[in-house]
């Protein structure tokens, strides 16, 4: 992100607190994107993508075996806010704590990587619309993800 400053001491904090911008806690740990499927608040399954590297919008990540710490938080979240479909959740896992930074009531733009990892949220939605959601299954496949975006201008 542009204009990001890591505040290291009280003097810097005093200086930046009066500037136009946002001050927030720096989160440690690995960043995860979670695609989760809920049926009437019950977590049916989820796929975890751990971000390994970011340079601009090019990313390297991997679909990883589901972590029970993340699973417990995601499941509890579904019950608290009464989730009933596919959602995308982003957060950081540090030691034994998962901190949610974003919840999106939709399929993630990067869900294709979950599909490659054996977790297809689109199929769930199709089956649910046909009254066959109980037929939805998934199988975890560890997958490394490398995404490159190029901008091309055509006149």
Structure description:
- The structure is a single chain.
- The chain has helices at residues 10-16, 68-80, 111-116, 121-129; strands spanning 30-39, 42-55, 58-64, 86-94, 97-104, 143-147.
- It is an alpha+beta fold and 155 residues long.
- The protein has a 6-stranded antiparallel beta sheet with strand order 5-4-1-2-3-6.
- The model has no long low-confidence stretch (mean pLDDT 89).
Sheet having the most strands: 6 strands, antiparallel
How do the strands line up in the largest sheet?
A: 5-4-1-2-3-6
> What structural class results from the helix and strand content?
alpha+beta
Share of residues in strands: 25-35%
Per DSSP, the total helix count is 4
Morphology: globular
List the helices and strands and how they pair.
Layout lengths: L9 H7 L13 E10 L2 E14 L2 E7 L3 H13 L5 E9 L2 E8 L6 H6 L4 H9 L13 E5 L8
Antiparallel strand pairs: 1-2, 1-4, 2-3, 3-6, 4-5
Give short descriptive properties of this protein.
six-stranded antiparallel β-sheet, alpha+beta, 4 helices, 34% strand
Outline:
With 155 residues, the chain is of the alpha+beta class.
């Amino acid at each position: 992100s542009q204009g990001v400053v890591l505040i290291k001491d009280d003097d810097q904090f005093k200086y930046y607190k009066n500037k136009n911008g946002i001050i927030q806690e720096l989160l440690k740990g690995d960043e995860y994107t979670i695609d989760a499927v809920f049926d009437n608040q019950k977590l049916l399954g989820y796929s975890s993508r751990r971000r390994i590297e970011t340079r601009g919008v090019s990313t390297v990540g991997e679909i990883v075996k589901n972590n029970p710490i993340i699973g417990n938080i995601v499941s509890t979240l579904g019950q608290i806010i009464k989730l009933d479909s596919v959602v995308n959740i982003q957060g950081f896992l540090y030691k034994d704590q998962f901190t949610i930074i974003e919840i999106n009531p939709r399929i993630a733009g990067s869900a294709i990587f979950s599909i490659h990892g054996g977790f297809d949220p689109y199929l769930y939605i199709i089956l649910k619309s046909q009254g066959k959601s109980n037929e939805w299954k998934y199988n975890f496949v560890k997958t490394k993800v490398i995404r490159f975006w190029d901008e091309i201008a055509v006149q």
